[in-house]
Amino acid sequence: MTTEVYLVRHGETMFNQLNKVQGWCDSPLTIKGINDLKRTAQALSQVHFDNMYSSDLKRAIDTVHLMKDVNQVSEIGKIKKLPEFREVFFGSFEGDDIADTWEQVSLAAGMLPEKNITKIINQVGIDEFRQATKKADPRHLAENKQELDKRMVRAISVLRDLTIKEQRVLIVSHGDFIKTLAIKYWNRSDGKHDIIFPSNGSVSRGILYNNGQFEIVDYNVDAENI
């Protein structure tokens, strides 16, 4: 049996609004974030889910409970929190200004100073961007490509074990983690280059096969188009 997986990005947070690096650190949902999520929740209100899951970060937990409360056709019990689906970890940069952080990463990648992440990734590639982030981190705690890839594989394996008897599930995760999953598992990605960052409250849909294989079939779909 296959399992249909709805991957929802959490709503906008205070750190999103303030342009601060937000990986494993957390900040509350904004009013805009909650209102955007209500539209997503309403769009999914008539979709039956056998279960709902979330990252173990509070912004994801708050999001999944909003999805659960609005859904009219699912009977969801206690939400299981999965640390494997946390956001990418940015180490010492957590909570710092985004533009200043990317400038340091660009220098570590051998570039001239650059504050725009898209320009950095377009020049050096997503894999080198991950390596440069770890290199630029004074404590070298940020996840590099190998560490993140290992965690993604583990996340899919954990989800497969949990959903072996479930036909459709929803899981709330995070923008960079969902994007990186899509780079690896979406057939419209070449697996090497960057793709558009998913919007807050957007839905990406995947298929998890009983042999453990996973693929993204829809990516970054807004509530109005679900």
From TrEMBL:
Asked if the record carries the keyword Hydrolase, the reply is yes
Q: Which UniProt keywords apply?
A: Hydrolase
Matching entries from Gene3D superfamilies are given as: Phosphoglycerate mutase-like
InterPro entries attached to this UniProt entry: His_Pase_superF_clade-1, His_PPase_superfam, PG/BPGM_mutase_AS, Phosphoglycerate_Mutase
Q: Which stretches are transmembrane?
A: none
Matching entries from SUPFAM superfamilies are given as:
Phosphoglycerate mutase-like (SSF53254)
Q: List, alphabetically, the PANTHER family matched.
A: FRUCTOSE-2,6-BISPHOSPHATASE TIGAR
Q: What is this protein's name? A: Histidine phosphatase family protein
The scientific name of the source species is Lactobacillus bombicola
